Amino acid sequence: MRLIGHDEAWNVWRAARAGQRMHHGWILAGREGLGKASFARAAAAELVAEPGVPQPAPEVHPDIHLLEPLPSNDDETKKRDEGKAYTRKRNISVDQIRGVQRRLVTRPTLGSRRAVIIDAADDLEKGAVNALLKSLEEPPAGTFFLLVTHQIGRLLPTVRSRCTVLRFHPLEPDDLARALREAAPELGGAALEAAIAAGSGAPGAALAFAEMELGSVWQIMSRLVAEGDPDLALRGELSTALGQRPSRERLLAVIEAARRVLVTAMARSDDMTRLRIVEAHAALATLAAQAPIYNFEPALLLLEIGGLLASVARTRENAA
């Protein structure tokens, strides 16, 4: 996906590069799905490039080191190596940080600079953070760190104080639509509208939603919020739309989509409805935290999600 809508971030980055003493540590901050990781790779490629020297792609560049959670086991490693989707570990380990640090004692391979991308710094183990701090305090010559973070408040103050913060903001609807059309030209109509609404300004989130083909789910959830569901019919449609055995990833995406439906409804609601939206959103946030840990029965989970959405509607019972 081409980086659309982040001109401000590029201007700040390139102005820093043009200066005489560019800061060695950068935090790329903003909600997940905005394109921060893609920016980091493109920015790192610009940083390490040398005039007249052929440059490999960022993924295989010897002077661009990418740290992200590893596959969760040998089977998932095999899937990764075959180019398939795979499950990752929850954290970036201290061993991964130390492994990169051992490589930083040598000179860059193709030029005078190298970049270390950590995606995401939110996922660093405690020991990994402490190990990283040593490199941020005394960075090797020509080494620059790009820390992608979705929740900057989770980073230690000692890490934040050693980095320049580059903030990323949600895209405007027109920019988001343009990014989606370029990344997924087959999207159109209700599917495109649902992806734009679900993405809430984040291209990655919108594209992930579209790839899961959840457009019909979005429409059902929107009806639940607007109409309620006194006879459970819409909750039945929601369960049918997801199928009998939805994956955990698909269920998590549905919970997130339900939260986005509520956020979208907030702007056009009266004060009493907003209170119900806040209560339902808080309950969905709890479900989102529990779902990756507990083995919920999908049918019951969908019933709970549908009930929370329906509780927002201005029914006779709510009005009483």
TrEMBL record:
It comes from Novosphingobium sediminis. The lineage of its organism: Bacteria, Pseudomonadati, Pseudomonadota, Alphaproteobacteria, Sphingomonadales. GO terms for biological process: DNA-templated DNA replication. Residues 75-85 have a biased composition (Basic and acidic residues). Residues 53-85 are annotated as: Disordered. SUPFAM superfamilies: P-loop containing nucleoside triphosphate hydrolases. This is DNA polymerase III subunit delta. Pfam families: DNA_pol3_delta2.
